Design the sequence.
């Protein structure tokens, strides 16, 4: 079964850090470009960033609001995608989804709350 | 940055009647390879988004044929020929030509 399962969401303080994980199964993760998308409570979808496959350079792109604070990485040996979030702000409070770059496969999401 | 503007933002519909959502882009979405990377997603209450349409008009596997996408350049439309109760949710367009951008979402309610 094709599946993405996010984890690591939690309550964090402003200025703090969190690392989210996304475990992939049922497809060739190492060949897949992957993305993170977030959704603040009651709001719309916002693209966070993406990582290319290692064979396509493994480089990353980020949305302006998170550039310089968030880092996307991958461990193909573990079929896992990561989102390292630093210098967290209250406006980063959201459900975070991982998805394939084609956006045809989505995880169930993991909730991040940034509050003092 | 590319801005996608959806209208309407709220769409009350009657079961069995058609519905239409517009998505307008601030820039052409035609990529250098000639393709137009405009997708449509459905997000039912409490669920993750689901892709319905990719590259303007290609329906995903398992998506009912009452859903159709059309458009070109900067102007795109998602149509539902006859709305059913299970179609309630929020619909988003997303462009994948210039990085990625989502529209604000259109809430479809019966």
Sequence:
């Amino acid at each position: 079964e094709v599946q993405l399962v996010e984890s690591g969401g939690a309550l964090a303080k402003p200025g703090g850090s969190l690392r989210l994980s996304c475990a992939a199964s049922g497809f060739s993760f190492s060949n897949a470009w992957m993305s993170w998308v977030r959704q603040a409570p009651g709001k719309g979808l916002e693209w966070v960033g993406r990582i290319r496959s290692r064979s396509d350079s493994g480089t990353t792109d980020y949305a302006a609001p998170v550039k310089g604070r968030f880092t996307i990485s991958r461990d193909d040996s573990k079929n896992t995608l990561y989102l390292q979030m630093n210098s967290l702000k209250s406006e980063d409070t959201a459900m975070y989804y991982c998805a394939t770059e084609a956006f045809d496969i989505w995880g169930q999401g993991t909730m991040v709350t940034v509050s003092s | 940055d590319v801005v996608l503007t959806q209208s309407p933002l709220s769409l009350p519909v009657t079961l069995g009647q058609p519905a239409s959502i517009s998505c307008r882009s601030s820039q052409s979405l035609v990529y250098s390879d000639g393709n137009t990377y405009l997708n449509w997603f459905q997000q039912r209450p409490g669920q993750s988004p689901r892709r319905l349409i990719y590259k303007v008009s290609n329906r995903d596997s398992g998506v009912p044929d009452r859903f159709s996408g059309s458009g070109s350049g900067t102007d795109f439309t998602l149509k539902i020929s006859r709305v059913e109760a299970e179609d309630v949710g929020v619909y988003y367009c997303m462009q994948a030509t210039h990085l990625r951008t989502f529209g604000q979402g259109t809430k479809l309610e019966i």
In short: The radius of gyration of chain A is 13 Å. Chain A touches chain B at residues 35, 37, 44-47, 50, 61, 63-64, 97, 102-104, 106-109 (CB under 8 Å). DSSP finds no helices and ten strands in chain A.
